[in-house]
Design a protein that fits this description.
Keywords: DNA-binding. It comes from Orbus hercynius. This is TetR family transcriptional regulator. By secondary structure, the protein is an all-alpha fold. The protein has a single domain (6-184), classed as Tetracycline Repressor, domain 2 (Orthogonal Bundle). The chain contains nine helices and no strands. It has helices at residues 6-24, 31-38, 42-48, 52-74, 80-88, 94-110, 114-140, 149-166, 174-184. The protein is elongated, with a radius of gyration of 19 Å.
Length: 190
Amino acid sequence: MSYLKKNERYQQILNTAMQVVIDEGIAAITARKIAKTANISVGLIHKHFKTIGELKSIALIAITNQLIEQQQTDLEHKTHIDKIIESVIPLKGNNAVIFRKMWNEALFLSDKDPDIKRAYQSSTNEWHEYIVQLINEAVADNALQTNSANDLAWRLIAISCGFDNLSIIDEFDQSTIYAHILALLPPNLT
């Protein structure tokens, strides 16, 4: 174990927890698991995080933030409508499996763990804010009309959650889900 500044050690622990979530799931985060993986003492974890629940929740939020940032980069040159739809369409590929498992586990654990519940709510709210921003940009450029970007974003998230569960069925490939979500957007697209 090498000496790191306080913020560097915090980030090392958080990065380790994030990787454990991705590799093994949220429930796999224990003080011993993180300490062993990061090659540090258990005491250092408790020095930086009040509880393991807090570490789990911060890791979940950090993974969500990374996903949103990556999505913003990937969608940078897309149309407003494509940005909106691709922000709510279920993920594809290896990341889809990882994130679907993570979100299903977070939803399940949120009934028992208040830290996870807060993280789930916070992450969902961040996703909602991001979609509202995309909708407002589309409205400003006359690519979309809506009376409430806020309400439309929540409807799209609800639809996305349903389609995410259906996306494992062969008939619900990305293009089919895209077409369904596009059909649900308000008219007057340019």
